[in-house]
Specification:
Structural class: alpha/beta
Order of helices and strands: EHEHEEHEHHHEHHHE
CATH architecture of one domain: 3-Layer(aba) Sandwich
Shape: globular
Radius of gyration: 19 Å
Largest sheet: 7 strands, mixed
CATH superfamily of one domain: Vaccinia Virus protein VP39
Number of strands: 7
CATH class of one domain: Alpha Beta
Number of helices: 9
Distance between the termini: 50 Å
Length: 246
């Protein structure tokens, strides 16, 4: 399940891509399939080991084209182990809402992104997220959980303040908003068979949708995304610095 729309945010073979806070690796895997030179970075050692195993399996299965590379590594988003201007593309998906120093993370992303490079930032959308916070304290009080809710204009302003030039936005995952509202209403900590019946039933619907990709749910989500899309997605470029006058 991808949050970044690669028809709006296309990659070229050989693009150097950083997936910052890669988690389980969903965007990193897609970039690898598209021929990029991918670095997937996260502070969670267990997830990084799993992402590395998947990269190896993809290579073995021939899922990535010749010339594509993939590396999984632990790292700190506030102290990235890369020189300035190292990447053509940076992706940070559903991460910034967890980090106290979000301005510091943006500054590091801009530092390692080359002039003319592009960045994709996704965060939970204000409206659906606000409902989750209203329904459940546990949803956002868990250790490592969400510590802020971004309004769209606030996120775009912070991106501009970091030196980026936003050029496009959209919303994603409308079908997932009701699932999280149900989770918050019936108990965020109740999982699997312990989850309430409405939560289990809706989860089965989401799994079916992800696996089968039926046209009816694709159309429904496209219609609903502007209204209740779970994620807000913003794309931006790092402008070229003006040449100094001789």
């Amino acid at each position: 399940m991808l949050t970044v729309d690669f028809t709006r945010f296309p990659l070229a073979p050989g693009d150097r891509v950083l997936d910052l806070g890669c988690g389980a690796g969903r965007h990193a895997f897609e970039c690898y399939r598209r021929g990029a030179q991918v670095v997937a970075l996260d502070r969670n050692a267990e997830e990084i080991r799993e992402v590395a195993r998947w990269f190896a399996a993809m290579k073995e299965a021939g899922e990535a084209p010749q010339g594509a590379t993939a590396t999984a590594m632990e790292g700190d988003a506030l102290n990235l182990p890369f020189p300035d201007d190292s990447f053509d593309v940076v992706i940070i998906s559903e991460v910034m809402e967890h980090i106290p120093d979000d301005k510091g993370v943006l500054a590091e992303m801009v530092r390692v992104l080359r002039p003319g490079g592009r960045i994709a930032v996704t965060v939970p959308r204000y409206g659906p997220e606000k409902i989750c916070w209203s329904l459940s304290d546990a949803y956002h009080e868990v250790e490592g959980g969400h510590i802020r809710i971004y309004k769209a204009d606030e996120l775009l302003r912070r991106m501009r303040e970091a030196g980026l030039k936003p050029y496009g936005t959209h919303h994603a995952h409308a079908l997932h908003s009701p699932y999280w509202w149900l989770k918050c209403a019936f108990g965020v900590g109740r999982d699997g068979e312990d989850a309430a019946l409405p939560v289990r039933a809706y989860h089965k619907l989401l799994v079916w949708d992800i696996m089968k990709k039926p046209a009816v749910t694709r159309v429904a989500e496209q219609l609903l995304n502007p209204v209740v899309g779970k994620s807000f997605v913003a794309y931006a470029t790092k402008p070229h610095l003006p040449r100094a006058q001789a």
